[in-house]
C-alpha cells in the first residue's frame, strides 16, 4: 500500500502531466466518442496539416490555431460555446458556423466527428 506521501506525489504528477489515460476517459465520457479512434481520424483527415495537435504524429500545422488545451477552452471556432455538440458541428460543417472560415469541409461523418471531439477534449 502506497504511503500518504506517495499518493500526494502521484496526484500532483497526474495534475501536472494531465494523466493521459484519465484525460482520454474524460474525453470519451463527455462526448460518447472514442479518443483512440479520434486520433486515427485526425491523422486520416489531415487535420495536422493546418493545426498543431499534441499526440498526433506530424501535426505541426500553423495555418489554424494550435489545438493544445482545447478541452479547457471556453469557445471553439471563435464564437461557439465549447460543448460537445458545438465542437462536433464545427468539425462536420465549419462553413455553416462561419461562411468565411478557411477551415475546409472535410466530409467528416457524425461518428468520426464525435471520436475526433473525444480526442480533442482529452487535450486539457
CATH architecture, by name, is: Orthogonal Bundle
Given the structure, what is the number of helices?
Answer: 6
**Count of domains:** 1
Gyration radius, in Å: 16 Å
Question: Element order, helices and strands?
Answer: HHHEEHHH
The name CATH uses for the topology is: Cytochrome Bc1 Complex, Chain D, domain 2
Total strand segments: 2
CATH class: Mainly Alpha
Walk me through what this model shows.
The structure is a single chain. The protein has 124 residues and is mainly alpha-helical. Helix content is 49%, strand content 3%. It contains 6 helices and 2 strands, in the order H-H-H-E-E-H-H-H. A two-stranded antiparallel ribbon has the order 1-2. A hairpin with a 3-residue loop joins strand 1 and strand 2 (80-81). The longest helix has 14 residues, at 4-17. It is globular.
Write a concise keyword list for the protein shown above:
about 120 residues; mainly alpha; about 50% helix; globular; disordered N terminus
Write the layout of secondary structure elements.
Layout: H1 4-17, H2 20-31, H3 35-44, E1 75-76, E2 80-81, H4 84-92, H5 94-97, H6 110-121
Antiparallel strand pairs: 1-2
Helix pairs in contact: 2-6, 3-6, 4-6
Quick overview:
The chain is mainly α and 124 residues long. The chain contains 6 helices and 2 strands; from the N terminus they run αααββααα.
Amino acid at each position: 500500500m502506497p504511503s500518504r506521501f506517495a499518493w500526494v506525489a502521484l496526484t500532483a504528477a497526474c495534475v501536472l502531466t494531465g494523466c493521459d489515460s484519465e484525460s482520454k476517459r474524460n474525453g470519451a465520457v463527455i462526448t460518447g466518442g472514442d479518443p483512440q479512434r479520434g486520433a486515427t481520424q485526425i491523422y486520416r483527415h489531415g487535420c495536422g496539416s493546418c493545426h498543431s495537435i499534441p499526440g498526433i504524429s506530424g501535426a505541426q500545422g500553423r495555418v489554424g490555431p494550435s489545438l493544445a488545451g482545447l478541452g479547457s477552452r471556453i469557445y471553439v471556432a471563435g464564437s461557439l460555446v465549447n460543448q460537445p455538440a458545438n465542437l462536433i458541428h464545427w468539425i462536420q460543417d465549419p462553413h455553416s458556423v462561419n461562411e468565411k472560415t478557411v477551415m475546409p469541409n472535410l466530409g467528416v461523418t457524425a461518428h468520426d466527428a464525435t471520436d475526433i471531439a473525444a480526442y480533442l477534449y482529452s487535450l486539457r
